[in-house]
Design a protein that fits this description.
EC number: 2.1.1.222, 2.1.1.64
Distance between the termini: 46 Å
Protein name: Class I SAM-dependent methyltransferase
Bound molecules: S-adenosylmethionine
CATH superfamily: Vaccinia Virus protein VP39
Largest sheet: 7 strands, mixed
Keywords: Methyltransferase, Transferase
Strand content: 15-25%
CATH topology: Rossmann fold
Helix content: 25-40%
GO molecular function, one term: 2-polyprenyl-6-hydroxyphenol methylase activity
Pfam families: Methyltransf_25 (PF13649)
Structural class: alpha/beta
Number of strands: 7
Number of helices: 7
CATH class: Alpha Beta
CATH architecture: 3-Layer(aba) Sandwich
Length: about 220
């Protein structure tokens, strides 16, 4: 059987179907638990939500005062996010820029963001390439938060619901982040408590203001 391709058309069709059938449920989906745990005490600044989907995490950040560039290649997901942000009020909506872009090509400006988040995005190329591109967009002193579903449960060796998918892994993220420039605060595989099944790789890293050799990062 052919492997599914998680390309633009696949995702836009998926979002159209999901919103046609479950718009209310999607609007009520709480922001990601790792995001809330890891970032609750981070002071707001400028954030990138790469592969933002319908924007539950973008909205959480904007509600807490972050200015967010929310990037996704599905116009359907972005339209939903924009509508939810408007429903949340002008103060929240005007802190968000919804950007249609393909993360395989869309390259954020260097050192633009205090925070870059990328949660559960299926990567078409090498995970390291995406991580490096996102990492370069973070200012010295800033934060990178990544999560990906793991295809294999490390505890049992069994395939998960994300089998055959390429998402962020702890190994790939650590391979992409130069330890002289990045302090790794979290690099874990965590069972998905909410879903009740599956395993998430979670990486939170802090870009050093100076490299460990003393040079500016
Ligand atoms: C599983 S959803 C996750 C959405 C959101 N980050 C979350 O945690 O709920 C993956 C999202 O990434 C988007 N996506 C996948 N590949 C992408 C790419 N190459 N460029 C931009 N967006 C992409 C999809 O359209 C989809 O909205």
């Amino acid at each position: 059987m052919d492997k599914p391709t998680f390309d633009h058309d696949h995702w836009d069709r998926l979002w159209s179907k999901a919103l046609r059938e479950h718009a209310d449920k999607i609007a009520l989906r709480p922001p990601n638990a790792h995001l809330q745990t890891e970032l609750a005490t981070l002071p707001p600044g400028r954030a990138l939500d790469a592969g933002c989907g319908h924007g539950a995490e973008t909205l959480w950040l904007a509600t807490r005062g972050w200015r967010v560039d929310a990037v996704d290649f599905s116009p359907t997901a972005l339209a939903c996010g924009r509508a939810l942000a408007e429903r949340a009020g002008q103060a929240v909506a005007e802190r968000i820029d919804w950007i249609e872009g393909d993360l395989a090509q869309w390259t954020p400006a260097a050192e633009r963001y205090d925070l870059a988040v990328c949660l559960y995005v299926h990567v078409a190329g090498a995970v390291e390439t995406l991580v490096k591109r996102l990492a370069a967009a973070v200012v010295p002193g800033g934060t990178l938060l990544l999560a990906g579903h793991r295809p294999i449960d490390p505890a049992t060796g069994a395939a998960t619901a994300a089998a055959n998918q390429v998402q962020v892994s702890v190994e790939a993220a650590l391979a992409a982040l130069d330890p002289a420039a990045w302090e790794i605060l979290v690099a874990q595989e965590r069972p998905r408590a909410i879903a009740g099944t599956g395993v998430d790789a979670v990486v939170r890293a802090h870009r050093r203001s100076h490299t460990r050799h003393g040079a500016p990062a």
